[in-house]
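Extended Data, panel c. Modelled sequence:
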Amino acid sequence: MKRNKEIVISPTRIVTILIVSLMLVTASFIIVPRIPNLFAQEPIGMTAEAAARAGAEAFLSVDAKAGKAAWVDKICQVSTLTGCKATSEAFAPMLWPSVEKKNLRLECKAAYASQVMAIQEPSEVEIWELKTVCSNPDSGEKNNSTTQVIVSKTSDAGWKFERIRFDQENKQ
């Protein structure tokens, strides 16, 4: 007594299976490429270039009417603790009297940035050279210059502005 077993698949089931298969294939094309992004960590803070641009723009943009405290605060927002301290304790007392005396107002933007050097030891530091365009909002006068800045990588906030690199350091 042998029995033959037959499997009967109706046309409705075939169409249903094809539609479900098509949906699964489509979903896999959409989801599979995104799987690595699900496990990737979001970068923390700014990139080195963004920190260099933000730092140079904050440092070079001065407004005698807004005052020294506003200038220092703007720099401290994008800089490391060391950079903020150096600005408030050394650079501001040294530079601000000239800014006030000349009633100087400058708005500076970094037009171009390129990495000059990367130092890994003892901490990650990079030197960036920026082509900056500074304009005086009162007179409309524009000035192009090249500025080098030092940025440092922090463990909790990505890259931060450290300080302007002076011409005397560039020659060494």
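Residues 11-31 form the longest helix (21 residues). This feature is highlighted in the accompanying rendering.
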